[in-house]
Amino acid sequence: MNGACTDGACTCHDGYEGDDCSTEVVSSLPTVKALSYETLLITMPGFDDANSPLSIALFGAIGLLLLTFLGGYLLNLIAGHRGVDALPFVRHIYASLSGSDYTLKPNPPPAQQ
User: Fold this and answer.
1) Which of 10, 34, 103, 110 has a CA positioned 20 to 30 A from the CA of residue 64?
2) Does residue 104 lie in a domain region?
3) Torsion of Cα atoms, 70 then 76 then 80 then 83, to 10°
4) pTM higher than 0.70
């Protein structure tokens, strides 16, 4: 039974209509729900998940990284660095990858007497 009938008058449950509540209501408009996009590498939350603590932390971390790199680039430009040298942390990475100026040399042979 899809409703309650008393004295020939029926009150139908949601989704049903008619004299005896036997006709199912078909909505012409699709139900809109937030979508969740998923790839092999990352899952992007739908609109309902945007206020979750994990999403707020993720968006905050991305914003902080963008601010760090953009601010570092602008500061390096002001300091006079151009090209790749203006990118933040590049000079530090190059310095850590380059070899030391100090190299060990073998001991000289002992003097002949």
Assistant:
1) 34
2) no
3) -70
4) no
